Each structure stands twice: as structure tokens, then as C-alpha cells.
Task: structure prediction
Amino acid sequence: MSWQHARMMICGLAMAMILAILPMAPAGAAAPDVGLVTNLSGEAVYWNQQENQIPAQAQAYLKIRQGDNFELKEGGSLQLLYFSGGRQETWKGPATVQVGEAESRAPAGKPQSAPEVKILSRKVANRMKGAPLVVSRSDARTGGMSTVMREQTHGVGVIRSMAPTKKDSPLPRPKLLTPQAQKELTQAEKVYQDLRKQAKADDPTPEIYLLSVYAEYGQYKKMLEVIDAMLAKKPGDPKLMELKALAKSKL
Result:
């Protein structure tokens, strides 16, 4: 057998293997994110049958998609915000919640309390799409943060360190503010004050909004003030601690 003939056979086998593998790829892109878990207390799991996703631990700041299911234990509370219409729902456990395109519902045959509903402005809801606290779904399954907590055994103790991953930082570089940018920041701070007056003391939605604005304009000193205020209510929150470390690194 000549070398050219052998090479043609090898190429043919390789192409056959590729064609055999291709049908196994996903038929289409994943569904878009429709909202965000803005607050969570107690135990809850979530899953999505359309994505063949097994139940995983739910957490605050997680992005949600249509078809997601949440199972909330008794005594827990789950708050969801939909980006498109600004609908914010607060569910009390025990509850099973199915995420829709613009609102959630309880499965048929499972009687439970209706959620408390509040409507935020679309401008506020859309701004929160890019909040630096947001946890992507892939991060949630692998640890939940763009910067991971590493535990290394050293002697008889455990050393905990913040170790940056290879992913890009969710925070842009600091910027010099133009007069227009300063005006927009002032307006956003007024919106925050209005949101804070209307929200419950344990609702971090106003702060998530303000952090998204400060991050966009590189206002990291102001971000640290907001994060410290949030940590006073949720001491040791890993996502807040991560964001604080990132903001400090930008100063």
C-alpha cells in the first residue's frame, strides 16, 4: 500500500469519527437568562429538565432561565427579579417555583402561598443584568465565583486564600468621569435612595443596583462603602468578600 493511499484512508477514518460525534452536540444555544435571584434565605435547590441539569444548591445572585425549578424548604425565602418587566417576586417556603419568561408560577397540584409581588422600573431591572455580584450558572455548579476560595493545609491549620482564576475580571479599569457620567451617577444615587425607602431592610436589591452603576463607571471606593454596608447585614458572605477583594485590587 502506498503512503498516499494510507494517508487517504486515515483522513477518511478521521472524517467518519467527526461525523459520528457531531450529532451528539447540542441542537441549539442555551436559553437566555431572564432574571436574577436577588435574595435567598434558608435552603433551596434548583434544576432545569430542559437542560438535563440535576438539582444543585441555589444561591443569591444566581441568574435564572425559563424552565428553572426551585424547591424551597420550610422557613426559607426566595426573591426573584425578572429583567424584562421588572417583576420582583418573594416566595415563602415550603414552595416549588417554576420560572417563566416574565413571571413564575407554582406547579399544578401543589397548593402553596402566592408570592409577594413588586414591580421595579425596567431601567433598574435592565441595569442589574450586568451587576458584578451576578453568579453565572456554570460558576454556580463549580463553586460560584469568578475568584475561588482555595484551602491549603499548612502544618496543623488551614490557610484560606483568594486565588484569581483565568477568567477576566468582571470589573473594568477605573475611568475619569465626564460631566455627563457624573450627572448619570448622581441620578443613579437618587434612584438608589428611592429604592431603599421602598425596600425591606434585608432586601439587597437597591445595593445590587447601585453596585452595578458604580462598577460600570469604575467608582471602586464608593463600591467598597456599599459592600461594607451589605457585609454588616450578611457577615462573611463569600460573594461579597470576593467582590470586595476585586474592588480593592482596582484602587
